[in-house]
Design goal:
Shape of chain B: globular
Oligomer: heterodimer
Strand content of chain B: 15-25%
Bound molecules: flavin-adenine dinucleotide, FE2/S2 (inorganic) cluster
Helix content of chain B: 25-40%
Shape of chain A: globular
Number of helices of chain B: 10
Distance between the termini of chain B: 37 Å
Largest sheet of chain A: 5 strands, mixed
Strand content of chain A: 25-35%
Structural class of chain B: alpha/beta
Helix content of chain A: 25-40%
CATH superfamily of the largest domain in chain B: FAD/NAD(P)-binding domain
Distance between the termini of chain A: 55 Å
Structural class of chain A: alpha/beta
Number of domains of chain B: 2
Number of strands of chain B: 18
CATH architecture of the largest domain in chain B: 3-Layer(bba) Sandwich
CATH class of the largest domain in chain B: Alpha Beta
Radius of gyration of chain A: 23 Å
Largest sheet of chain B: 8 strands, mixed
Strand order of the largest sheet of chain A: 2-1-7-5-6
Number of helices of chain A: 11
Chain lengths: ~500, ~375
């Protein structure tokens, strides 16, 4: 709107490489005060931009709670939204006039019925493939399956498609086939456009797959109704969650996942803090530091428990140019502040990683980012009865699978971070393989072509893409949990799957 | 793990732990408890937390009254200091049909005659007890003020702490595969992997695993493991205290608020016995919650956090099987509570300890609950088989 000055708060208006596409200006309420934001922002992001850090207090100790992960995985961003308590505000879009209220501990039971009266469960039967998660893995799977004529239903917990791609501002490597040269959010746009153009794909946003049930039913909780889905095949691509560390004050608003900060900064154009301490010097920690510097924040230091920086040389070189101090052999001891981080104490560790008393350093800052890795979100897969196993190289518990990405639950495939942490390109390749596996198993008309394409992808993935020494660790992890069809049959005998798909 | 022990108890649910506790109080020191899973993995960790004496058989009423006395005594003593509590918040039974309201009057009279002061309450009293309830269509209600609730994990961890503190060994992740006997006497058990543990007394308190264990010595235990479903919502501020029973909806749905604030709901839906606990059903949630929304419309806005399945280890007459197994000397059983063995925990402990130490149980009604009642055809009747 001409003449309307941009909102001046934590939003970033000048950036050396990014321009932020913002939607229409929207007014809503926080505790009765008018807050302005831009359409497309989450409630948590818009509140954060307006410098509201605390959205609720914890039930037992009354501790301040704000945003941590920004992608719906941690529940620290609860507030009351239009009368509904315990709403994760980071996966709830702002809308004109929506009333957000601070939640003081446990909420009173809601008096309203929230317009749910009379809305019965919708039963969806006869869909060929249910894709859980609309990130790169899920979207690639959906496209592959739909291209071969299968009907697809994508359910996505977030109100936007694209998953973590949306916050990825770097250019992808590799060939055009693999979106080389595009930035993550542009890849997300391409995938979304493709999916939206396919008539045999239905998309449900703000829809969470919550469980697998007897006779092959999958429960989905939508924004204002429940769905009961009975698909022929399921491809689960629910992504990953950020890891956290245990230290006093780790729940204080202003302690945030590095990915959470990336969401604010890269997706919404909101500066997550002014003076930042980053914990972890792997690629994510170092890249996020660099992005913070570009966005205008001050990086007070990066804390690393090992004697050396974990990130690849190319990334480490960038922050070195800015003169960011890296505290190797250090860990975080404590974070302090009242209702928002005011500073952190770090401490040196000895060769057994034990803190050395007396070696503490206090660092005043208003943001502490935790960049200590991701863990696959396999809760749903474990509930489905898929046999999971602990693989440190992949970030935690992951399902055992065949090379075609089928789990021990027949007809349930996995792809992307949920199959073990790698990155976006692998997520898309795995997604396509899983999608093609459903096509082959469904015996679609051109299943032969699909099978051929699948073999080519597998060859590329294992022999070329994962041949790079920098991904050797993840590759070793994936090798560990990939079993032959025969072995999988034996696993199914000793761990009978409670549900089965694919027949 | 010891290789020889005086008393070996199979199952570390509330029954096994309470038995060990009562034995220790009577001076038995050498006790080993084995459980094939984690503490609370059986029905105990899956139960609805309800405790009441408002049953319809004399045996149940008498035993439950004793049990409630013990709950209160335990909560006030060392177990209470270790975390066990009894929240005497009552049970409310709600009828929507006039015939049921009349039935309540009869039931209350029966309870009163057995010494349980259940009473008929009016709409005003109902609203006072359960403020956020919509009472349209309520034809009558009944209140049992002696009933209450407590959180099973607090209970069993309190028992566990004291029982271990007094020298009992509790070993998890060990499955007993066989009970061993020699010339009509128990000699010990064999565990998975083939190891043998000698014991002169073996107590089967193994919930849904009990039938198979008795089968290993050729004794038939007439129980069925029937899957029962339950769910709990996200927590809210305390809204009401009693457990509320919707008597006139088939399957008798009920709701109770947990100490954390979540609303726990259950309902009897028809199930095939012995289905695995991983066989969860998508229709349970609407089946349990929907009927309750006529009284609690705000439930529509509340999210379910967890849903799970546990076994009602059920006998033909819905009463437990207690005491010595007469075919095998030294073998005892405490199982088959048919859905109300959590509340019986304390009295189970006392009765079994008395039997094991060769005394007669101090409650004569308990003697009617031994295994041989099925042979003798001396079954007992119970009409109120709910949470
Ligand atoms: C915080 C974070 C930052 C990252 N940053 C980078 C980076 O900078 N560069 C890089 O190469 N890789 C990065 N990654 C790695 C990431 O692995 C890949 O880039 C890629 O996004 C993984 O794709 P995915 O489809 O498996 O999962 P995601 O992209 O995470 O997508 C999962 C989707 O599933 C939805 N979902 C989750 N659970 C359910 C459910 N139960 N029901 C319905 N929907 C559900 C989510 O809302 C989400 O939209 C990051 C990962 C995370 C978690
Ligand atoms: C949904 C639901 C709601 C309920 N609500 C109530 C209620 O409100 N009030 C009430 O009083 N009761 C209720 N009950 C019933 C109550 O839970 C049980 O009666 C009670 O917990 C039985 O306790 P237990 O110790 O005998 O058995 P369990 O708790 O089942 O313990 C038996 C233990 O034995 C172990 N075991 C089994 N086989 C072996 C083996 N071969 N070797 C080694 N270990 C073995 C198991 O792992 C288990 O831990 C409910 C039950 C369910 C399922
Ligand atoms: S769930 Fe919203 S910040 Fe983590």
């Amino acid at each position: 709107m001409p003449g309307t000055p941009p909102l001046k708060d934590r939003r970033i208006w000048e950036h050396p490489i990014l321009t932020f596409k913002r939607g229409r200006r929207v007014k809503f309420y926080f505790n009765g005060n008018i807050v302005e934001g831009y359409e497309g922002e989450s409630i948590a992001a818009a509140l954060y931009a307006a410098r509201y850090d605390v959205f609720s207090r914890s039930p037992y100790k009354g501790r301040a709670r704000g945003a941590f992960c920004m992608i719906g995985k941690c529940s620290s961003c609860f507030a009351i939204v239009d009368g509904v308590p315990n709403t994760r505000t980071c996966v709830e879009p702002i809308r004109e006039g929506v009333k957000v209220e601070f939640q003081e501990g446990l909420a009173e039971i809601p008096s309203a019925t929230g317009g749910l009266e009379g809305k019965d469960e919708e039963v969806i039967e006869g869909v060929d493939v249910l894709v859980i998660g609309g990130g790169p893995a899920g979207l690639a799977a959906a496209i592959a399956a739909a291209k071969h004529g299968l009907s697809v239903l994508i359910v996505n917990e977030h109100f936007k498609l694209g998953g973590q791609l949306i916050k990825q501002t770097h250019k992808f490597f590799g060939s055009k086939d693999l979106f080389g040269g595009l930035r993550g959010f542009q890849v997300a746009e391409e995938l979304e456009n493709k999916v939206r153009s396919m008539r045999n794909v239905r998309v449900l946003l703000q829809a969470t797959a919550y469980g697998f049930f007897r006779d092959g039913w999958v429960g989905v909780a939508g924004k204002d109704r429940l769905y009961r889905v009975k698909p022929r095949f399921v491809i689960a691509a629910p992504g990953a969650a950020e890891r956290h560390l245990a230290f006093p004050g780790n729940d204080l608003p202003g302690v945030m996942g590095a990915g959470g900060a990336q969401t604010l900064m890269n997706e919404y154009g909101i500066l997550p803090g002014d003076e930042v301490l980053v914990v972890g010097s792997g690629n994510v920690g170092v890249i996020v530091s660099y992005q913070l510097l570009q966005a205008g924040a001050k990086v007070k230091g990066i804390v690393e428990i090992l004697p050396y920086i974990g990130a690849w040389f190319v990334h480490a070189a960038k922050i070195r140019r800015y003169g960011v101090k890296v505290y190797t052999r250090h860990t975080i001891k404590e974070v302090w502040g009242k209702d928002r981080v005011e500073g952190a104490t770090i401490v040196r560790v000895d060769e057994h990683f034990k803190p050395v008393p007396g070696s503490e350093t206090d660092i005043p800052c208003d943001l502490v980012l935790i960049a200590v890795g991701l863990t696959p979100d396999t809760r749903l897969l474990a509930q489905a009865g898929a046999v999971v196993t602990w693989v440190p190289e992949l970030g935690g518990l992951v399902p055992i699978r065949t090379k075609y990405l089928e789990t021990s639950v027949p007809g349930l495939f996995i792809a992307g971070d949920a199959s073990g942490i790698e990155e976006a390109t692998t997520a898309m390749i795995e997604g396509e393989i899983a999608g093609l596996s459903a096509v082959v198993r469904a015996g679609a008309d051109d299943a032969g072509n699909a099978a051929e394409r699948r073999e080519a992808l597998l060859k590329f993935l294992w022999d070329e893409y994962r041949a790079s020494p920098v991904v050797a660790r993840a590759k070793a992890g994936k090798l560990k949990v990939t079993v032959s069809e025969d072995e999988m049959e034996r696993i199914r005998v000793s761990n009978p799957p409670p549900v089965r798909f694919g027949s | 793990m010891r290789e020889e022990v005086e008393v070996l108890i199979i199952g570390a649910g509330i029954s096994g732990l309470a038995i060990a506790y009562s034995l220790q109080k009577r001076g038995v020191k050498d006790i080993l408890i084995l459980d094939e899973s984690y503490i609370g993995a059986g029905s105990t960790g899956r139960c609805a937390t309800g405790i009441r004496a408002s049953f319809t058989s004399k045996e149940h009423v008498v035993l439950m009254k004793h049990s409630i006395d013990l709950w209160k005594k335990y909560a006030a003593g060392e177990l209470g200091r270790a975390g066990l509590y009894y929240d005497q918040s009552g049970y409310v039974w709600v009828a929507t049909r006039d015939e049921s309201a009349e039935f309540f009057e009869k039931l209350a009279k029966l309870h009163n005659s057995l010494g349980v002061n259940t009473k008929i309450i009016g709409i005003d009293e109902l609203k006072e007890l359960v403020p956020p309830m919509k009472v349209d269509g309520v034809a009558g209600a009944m209140f049992d003020p002696t009933a209450g609730k407590s959180y099973p994990f607090d209970t069993i961890f309190a028992f566990l702490k004291l029982v271990k503190g007094r020298g009992a060994e509790v070993v998890t992740r060990v499955k007993v595969t066989k009970i061993l006997t020699s010339s009509g006497k128990v000699t010990g058990v064999e565990v998975e992997g083939g190891k043998i543990i000698k014991a002169s007394t073996v107590v089967v308190a193994a919930g849904s695993g009990s039938r198979e264990l008795l089968g290993s010595v050729g004794v038939k235990l007439p129980i069925e493991n029937i899957p029962r479903h339950a769910l709990i919502t996200e927590p809210y501020k305390e809204a009401f205290k009693p457990l509320v029973i919707d008597w006139d909806t088939p399957g008798v749905p009920y709701i109770v608020q947990s100490k954390e604030g979540g609303f726990f709901m259950g309902r009897d839906v028809e199930e095939k016995p012995e289905l695995p606990l991983t066989s969860q059903r998508i229709d349970f949630m609407p089946k349990a919650v929907k009927p309750l929304t006529k009284f609690f419309p705000w439930l529509r806005n509340i999210r379910v956090l967890r849903y799970w399945v546990g076994y009602y280890v059920t006998t033909p007459d819905h009463h437990p099987v207690y005491g010595p197994v007469k075919e095998v000397e030294g073998l005892y059983i405490a199982a088959g509570y048919s859905g109300h063995g959590y509340m019986m925990g304390p009295i189970t402990g006392e009765l079994l300890a008395e039997w094991i130490l060769n005394r007669k149980p101090h409650i004569p009604e308990a003697e009617r609950l031994t295994l041989d009642r099925f042979e003798r055809g001396a079954l007992i009747k119970e009409l109120a088989v709910i949470g």
